[in-house]
């Protein structure tokens, strides 16, 4: 209040103030393209949560989205009934949680080991080559990966199928037999994503002061003890944070992996159905807008709670790494 | 003379220290073996697919897909070039979408992150929260698709393949971090004193300094657009607009479909599908997609690594 009083009587001050206001205006204009996009494609759909509580019907007189929503009947919690009435919900929630839990742990263990190993390669060019090759799958889409998998598992022509029959074993009908798919999906996921995590950890390791290792070596610590007492403690914070953040997203599955790699094959659903694919399938083939919105809403609410909890924990561990 | 002796002396000492602290030979062999086998696993499926695409039809019928086919042939590529109208349309679509998408998404990202980076910007915290909140909560797939299709008319057009990927709050974080680490705030102060407007400061002074960061974001976005098939699955019915990735995805089912229904088509069609090297054709399409990435990848890898390590934890 007092500052404005002073500024009124001070021309230089008001020029300054106008300039600040102008700057704020111009900077705000820079935010507009992004902000408008966020409003249209992120915030407006949030109101679509209503759909989860409606029997969505097209309003024949003027079928716009708003009219359809306004004229649809309320379903209360009717769209959530399937949760208790079918086994679908149990299967997809189980799959989503178990796959994610398993992969979070496996990724950390394998990526950290590879990063530690890569760090021991003294020859620069060799290390670089390993890194380049390991990172390559990360750049491919799941559609392409599904072809790679197909080359091995294709009925009749697939390499594994051929090997099986040439050994006199009855070939597995991979795309109709859900049994091996938990392992196949795990391999596919690790194959594509290990390189990425590995590079993150490697960057953290190369940031460790080399003199610590030298001192340890002079004191007679072998490689194992150096890894246990220097490398791993340095990685600890990062491992914990990545772990918690991933746990925060444990209700979200990688749609491409679960949809494309098993080629959307029906008999495999018991092993490949996750929340994301379920929402898509109910929406696109059954056109049940109420139910698919309901599943999506549940996923988002639970996911939101998980992320909030995860973030609170991360902030306790290392305040700088918290998302907000 | 003296200096040389001293130099070699320290060199030997350093080498000895390095040797003292390097792993033993058996351990080194084990480590290399482990890394080599995983590294090979990462590249072998692609090589396998290339081999299959060059395998003669007779060889596939006799031996299935094999690393050592009995007969080679470029038939798949011939057929792809002959039947290729859809292939070229899709190739063009992929390039178009990648280029337009990258340009606009980078522009939006640079503008937005610049505001987030400016500590003297009044609404900085508001806009930061405004974007980060969407990383945690959203309307979900169905409401988003319905809004895009029915309200924004993102339906069977190029916009449907570009607009939904334009903004990524994660990239805002990465870009802001790049600005923070490479552009000192004094530069902005001094250029504002020199009378440079905000836009001019951003594009003529800040952007050139933050070029490596912008390159990283551009490459990450280009890759996302090039690998995009999900949006086609949601928004595209017309084959005129489909990009290469989605064509590949459809081919998985469609070639099979043609072969299965060969009996119901005319004799000409039957003959064609019988002679078509379906399996190798499919793999040839896959090669078409991966080759641009495989060739460009070693050059842009370094930028992507930089981007990942900057935004690593705050994924």
Mind explaining what this structure looks like?
The complex is a heterodimer of chains A (324) and B (315). Chain A is mostly helical and 324 residues long. Chain A is built from 15 helices and two strands. Chain A has two domains: 2-56, no CATH class; 78-321, MetI-like fold. Chain A has a two-stranded antiparallel sheet. In chain A, helix 14 packs antiparallel against helix 15. Chain A is flat, with a radius of gyration of 27 Å. Chain A starts with a helix and ends in a 7-residue tail after the last helix. Mean pLDDT of chain A is 86; it is low at 1-9. In chain B, helix 5 crosses helix 9 (169-182), helix 5 runs antiparallel to helix 12 (211-226) and helix 14 (244-260) packs antiparallel against helix 16 (278-310). The longest helix of chain B has 33 residues, at 85-117.
What can be said about this structure in brief?
Chain A is an all-alpha fold.
Show the helix and strand layout.
The complex is a heterodimer of chains A (324) and B (315).
Chain A: H1 2-8, H2 11-47, E1 54-55, H3 65-71, E2 73-74, H4 82-85, H5 88-120, H6 124-135, H7 142-153, H8 159-166, H9 181-206, H10 210-218, H11 223-248, H12 255-260, H13 269-272, H14 275-284, H15 289-317
Helix pairs in contact in A: 5-9, 5-11, 6-9, 11-15, 14-15
Chain B: H1 2-20, H2 25-53, H3 57-63, H4 75-82, H5 85-117, H6 124-136, H7 141-151, H8 158-162, H9 169-182, H10 185-193, H11 198-209, H12 211-226, H13 230-235, H14 244-260, H15 267-275, H16 278-310
Helix pairs in contact in B: 2-16, 4-16, 5-9, 5-12, 10-11, 12-16, 14-16
Sequence of secondary-structure elements of chain B: HHHHHHHHHHHHHHHH
The low-confidence parts of chain B are: 1-9, 257-265
Per CATH, the superfamily of the domain at 81-241 and 286-310 in chain B is MetI-like
- Write out the strand line-up for the largest beta sheet of chain A, numbering strands in chain order: 1-2
If you consult CATH, what is the topology of the largest domain in chain A? MetI-like fold
Helix content of chain B: over 70%
Beta-strand fraction estimate of chain B: under 5%
Q: What does the largest sheet of chain B look like? A: none
Percent of residues in β-strands of chain A = under 5%
The average pLDDT of chain A is 86
- Regions of chain A with pLDDT < 50 over 5+ consecutive residues? 1-9
Quaternary status: heterodimer
Distance between the termini of chain A: 32 Å
Described by strand count, sense and barrel closure, the largest sheet of chain A is: 2 strands, antiparallel
Kindly state the percentage of residues in helix of chain A: over 70%
Gyration radius from CA atoms of chain A, angstroms: 27 Å
Count of DSSP strands of chain A: 2
């Amino acid at each position: 209040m007092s500052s404005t009083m002073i500024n009124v009587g001070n021309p230089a001050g008001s020029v300054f103030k106008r300039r600040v206001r102008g700057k704020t205006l111009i900077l705000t204009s820079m935010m507009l393209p992004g902000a408008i996009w966020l409003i249209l494609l992120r915030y407006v759909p949030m109101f679509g949560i209503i759909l989860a509580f409606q029997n969505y019907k097209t309003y024949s007189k003027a079928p716009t989205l708003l009219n359809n929503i306004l004229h649809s009947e309320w379903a209360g919690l009717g769209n959530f009934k399937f949760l208790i009435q079918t086994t679908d919900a149990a299967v997809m929630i189980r799959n989503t949680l178990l796959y994610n839990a398993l992969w979070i742990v496996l990724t950390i263990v394998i990526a950290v080991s590879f990063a530690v190993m890569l760090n021991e390669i003294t020859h620069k060019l060799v290390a670089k080559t390993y890194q380049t090759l390991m990172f390559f799958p990360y750049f491919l889409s799941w559609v392409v990966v599904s072809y790679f998998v197909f080359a091995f598992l294709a009925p009749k022509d697939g390499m594994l199928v051929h090997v099986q029959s040439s050994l006199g074993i009855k070939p597995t009908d991979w795309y109709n037999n859900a049994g091996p798919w938990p392992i196949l999906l795990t391999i596919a996921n690790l194959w594509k994503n290990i390189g990425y995590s590995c590079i993150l950890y490697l960057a953290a390791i190369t940031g460790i002061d080399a003199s610590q290792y030298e001192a340890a070596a002079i004191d007679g610590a072998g490689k194992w003890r150096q890894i246990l007492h220097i490398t791993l403690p340095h990685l600890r914070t990062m491992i914990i944070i990545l772990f918690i953040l991933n746990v925060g997203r444990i209700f979200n599955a990688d749609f491409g992996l679960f949809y494309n790699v098993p080629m959307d094959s029906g008999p495999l659903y018991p092993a490949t159905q996750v929340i994301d694919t379920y929402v898509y399938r109910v929406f696109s083939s059954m056109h049940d807008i109420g139910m698919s919105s309901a599943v999506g809403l549940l996923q988002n609410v639970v996911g939101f709670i998980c992320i909030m909890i995860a973030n609170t924990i991360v902030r306790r561990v290392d305040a700088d790494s918290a998302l907000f | 003379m003296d200096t040389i002796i001293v130099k070699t002396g320290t060199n030997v000492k350093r080498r000895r220290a390095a040797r003292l602290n390097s792993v033993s030979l058996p351990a080194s062999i084990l480590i290399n073996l482990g890394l080599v086998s995983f590294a090979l696993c990462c590249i072998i499926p692609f090589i396998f697919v290339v081999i299959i695409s060059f395998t003669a039809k007779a060889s596939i019928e006799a031996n299935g897909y094999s690393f050592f086919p009995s007969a080679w042939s470029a038939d798949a590529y011939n057929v792809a070039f002959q039947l290729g109208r859809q292939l070229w349309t899709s190739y063009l679509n992929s390039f178009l979408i990648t280029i337009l998408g990258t340009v606009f998404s980078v522009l939006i990202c640079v503008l937005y992150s610049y505001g987030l980076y400016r500590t003297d910007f009044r609404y900085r915290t508001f806009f930061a929260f405004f974007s980060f909140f969407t990383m945690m909560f959203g309307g979900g797939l169905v409401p988003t698709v319905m809004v895009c299709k029915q309200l924004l008319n993102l339906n069977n057009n190029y916009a449907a393949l570009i607009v939904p990927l334009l903004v990524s709050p994660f990239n805002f974080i990465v870009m802001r971090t790049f600005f923070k680490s490479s552009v000192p705030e004094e530069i902005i102060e001094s250029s504002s004193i020199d009378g440079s407007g905000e836009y001019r400061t951003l594009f003529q002074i800040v952007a050139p300094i933050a070029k490596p960061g912008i390159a990283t974001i551009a490459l990450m976005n280009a890759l996302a657009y090039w690998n995009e098939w999900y949006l086609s699955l949601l928004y595209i019915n017309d084959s005129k607009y489909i990009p290469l990735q989605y064509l590949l995805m459809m081919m998985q089912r469609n070639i099979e479909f043609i072969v299965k229904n060969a009996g119901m088509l005319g004799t000409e069609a039957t003959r064609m599908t019988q002679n078509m090297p379906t399996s190798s054709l499919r793999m040839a399409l896959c090669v078409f997609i991966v080759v641009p990435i495989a060739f460009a990848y070693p050059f842009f890898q370094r930028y992507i690594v930089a981007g990942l390590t900057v935004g690593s934890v705050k994924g």
